[in-house]
Write a structure and sequence with these properties.
Blueprint lengths: L1 H21 L12 H10 L5 E5 L3 H6 L6 E2 L10 H8 L5 E6 L3 H10 L14 E5 L2 E3 L4 E3 L1
Parallel strand pairs: 1-2, 1-3, 3-4
Antiparallel strand pairs: 5-6
């Protein structure tokens, strides 16, 4: 009986996760999400299955950041073992949105998802997206403008 319940819970968890990935409102460029979708997620507080990651370089991140979201320094990709470091930060069971007011979110997305033959990390999880938008960094939350 415990095994049946465990299997059912696992299938239910997968279905909930798969449904949220399908519900991502994609942007116009490959791998991007729409600003409206991000604003709705943040406004409604529906972030259980979504992880936002600040994709600004560490120097900008250290000046001002939000404690409640992750950080993926885009310069990590140019270090020895950079792909391994970056991939270790990516939750595999959630939607990950790389966010930056400049080009670094898209650059990080491309570094993660490009094949190793093309100089990328070859990540194929299908759960990573990016957005380039103006962001206000509050101590406990981000606000997209």
């Amino acid at each position: 009986m415990k095994q049946i319940i465990s299997v059912l819970l696992m299938l239910f968890s997968f279905a909930v996760y798969a449904g949220t990935v399908q519900d991502v409102e994609k942007g116009e460029q490959e791998g991007s999400v729409s600003k409206r979708w991000v604003m709705d997620i943040l406004k409604n507080g529906n972030t259980d299955n979504v992880v936002f990651m600040d994709a600004r370089p560490i120097s900008f991140y250290n000046k001002q950041h939000t404690d409640t979201i992750g950080h993926l320094d885009p310069d990590v990709f140019y270090e020895d073992g950079g792909c391994e470091k970056a991939l270790s930060l990516i939750p595999k069971d959630k939607i990950v949105v790389l966010i930056c007011p400049g080009p670094r979110a898209q650059e990080s997305y491309q570094n993660l998802t490009d094949s190793a033959a093309n100089g990328g990390c070859g990540y194929t999880g299908g759960n990573v997206y990016w957005i380039r938008t103006n962001v206000l960094y509050h101590k406990d939350r981000i606000e997209v403008k």
